[in-house]
Amino acid sequence: MNAVVQAKAESRHLLSGNEAVARAAWEAGVRVAAAYPGTPATEILENIALYPDIYSEWSVNEKVAVEVAIGASLAGSRALAAMKHVGMNVASDAFMTQSLAGVVGGLVIVVADDVGLSSSQNEQDSRYWGRFGHMPILEPADSQEAYDMVKRAFDLSEEYEVPVIVRMTTRVCHVKAMVEFDGERVEHRAAGFQKNPQRWVMTPANAKPRLPLMHERDRKFRELSETIDLNIVFPGGDRRIGFVTAGPAFMHVRETFPNAPVLKLGFSCPPPLDKIRAFAGQVDTLVVVEETELLLETEIRAAGIAVRGKDVLPRFGELAPSVLRPAIKPLLGEPWEVPKRAQASVFPRPPTMCASCPHLGPYFALSHIRNLNIIGDIGCYTLGAGHPWNALDTCTCMGASLSMAHGMDKGRGESDEKKHIVAVIGDSTFLHMGMQGLLNMIYNRGNVTVLLLDNRSVGMTGGQENPGTGEDLHGLPAPRVDFAKLVEGLGVRPERIRMVDPYELPTIVKLVREETKMEEPSVIITNRPCSLTDRFERLQPYVVIDDQCTGCGNCIDLGCPAIFVARRETVTAKSGKSKELVFARIDANTCTGCHMCVETCAPEAIVQPQPQNRVIRIQPHA
Amino acid sequence: MRDGITNILVVGIGGQGVMTAAEMLARTALSQGYDVKKTEVAGMAQRGGVVSSHVRFGPKVYSPQIDAGEADLLIGFEAAEALRWLPHLRPTGVAMVNTLRLPPPVVSAGLYDYPADPIADLAASGIEVHAFDAGAIAEELGNSKLVNTIMLGAISDHLPFPAEVLKASIVEGFRAYKPRLADINAQAFDAGREAGHAKTTTHRSAT
Asked: Could you give the ipTM of this predicted complex?
């Protein structure tokens, strides 16, 4: 078993913020934890899963995860839901009302904002949800605080009968730092669900009397914020600027201005306005350093306190020392010039699909078919927008591909008249929020060709399980959804449901061609596992016989990272036109023997040194 | 090393073991009584992107990030990646670089050029560069996954604690979880340490 899981109180460990949250949840007596994977929050549930005392699950989406946690809380159990920032949008319908009804067992929502967008489609500030949903927010600045504050959040949640948000950012989730444990698991008895329709059935008549109670609760939190030991002043000798800050920005402020007084808000919503006013009185200028939106600053200014912040600091991205220094130094009358350094000019290295990725085949097909509008979704297949495929035209949010494609079909403009509309979505995203879009399209007699790329994993977040993989969070066998039956059940005609091996390039090109011409919805389902998961079987690598390579470059168009350009030659054809030939080589360490590139090679220059009889040869297409 | 803080930047490509190497450095520093922070940006890195891991340790560490011009040591698992992160190194810093060249698909496709000699470019900037082919040493030892330990061995004489401490921490880790690999990693560490001693002046990297 994992060393951290077995660790006793008073031991010290190097933990990421996510690992610290998991340990704290265990110590706090959490009985139920649910999440949908999403960077940078994924490892919270993966680590909670290591503790056998906690029931934990991958839910199909964040709304479901929060509702599972709410149900457990009403039964009296302590419960936790974790998600990335965009997951909060999905989950919000649930917690916006439960915040009014309240909770029984402590309910904590851990949200991880991807400040700086390392792996997200937008940058959101989840602190708005605390204001919008009348829920308090704790903001840890590092792993130790994540550990301490998650435990604290459960106590607050039970005392005030409200869901509590613990707001993390990438720079807490994925930073490893020292954590000292101060306890071990404390069981919290679950009394069982106490029926009380006036409390739990949120009809207008029952919800209305809760409103004044919710506002009274807000008032109590405003008082608590003034006195709680999570909002603390770090004195400093240089009083020209005093900082109000929270989360990892606190660390950057201390690093950059070690002698400045700092009011650090661990309990940041609602903010302690009196405390801030008193602090402001002790410094020449009050500066708010907050990631990312102008939120505390607005509230402080509305309270009549003179404050600066986003007039000099950026309203997006991390407020790292390299950002703080040039912004704040001028306020101190100390101009700061970014030191000139030798800038190395190095090519970009954008993320790309992997060798044998089962998405390569579909994107090879999509990049070879004209007149398509390709509406994409969230997952590894978003990389299809990049080089060399350039075969993805939109990416907005989880599940949007099907519904946006339907809307584009119905709202066709002049240039779309002869275009076919294609939606591309993965297995997990389809189950998360895509099914509704397909049902809607069928019901409303739309016409979209759907590529359902089933790689049996949540790929981009590191290969987690979902209801389509046949395993659960713990790697135990679980019921596996049958995608063909599922889409048939939603109303796709059986003739228009096509299963295909994505490695069989000629077949998939032919299928996409055929189905896009149909005047009704069709779903093409691929069936090869993600090549980074254990379900993928690695075979003997291929090599290019240089003498036989004609330099056509077809295999390069596949976009497989195992295929490199060996050399280029420019030849002049009889017509006088010059043409560039690209000769390929395959890197033996990267190639996994999937044989996809063989399908692109007319001169049969790509071979396995010792052929394996398991390889299926497909007739090359004309 | 300002304020007693050591800043180490480990860089490379997803899957090369950059994060594992950084983790070993961080754990060893923690065992020596330092306050430690380690951070990386690797969200989509498993898909062939750039990985950078920052390790900071000292009496008290606040920000986990190493600013441009603040790294004391740069460990590059790939030649062009080391060059990419050169601006993060102090003028007095040391770069320990694996001469491996891994051009990405955008270079293969002819959209960008791979630098002709990244090691020479690094050396030309005036910093102290040590470059060697860690992959070749790993092959000699019979396991390409040893590159990680070889690079740690190479940097071990530039740390504020004895090289033996880092070696013991790596070898003990293997002894506990993968005992079969303990001895070979000890050898890899020593081989890397030896290879890391030579300074590069006008080195021409292998192609």
From this structure: 0.92
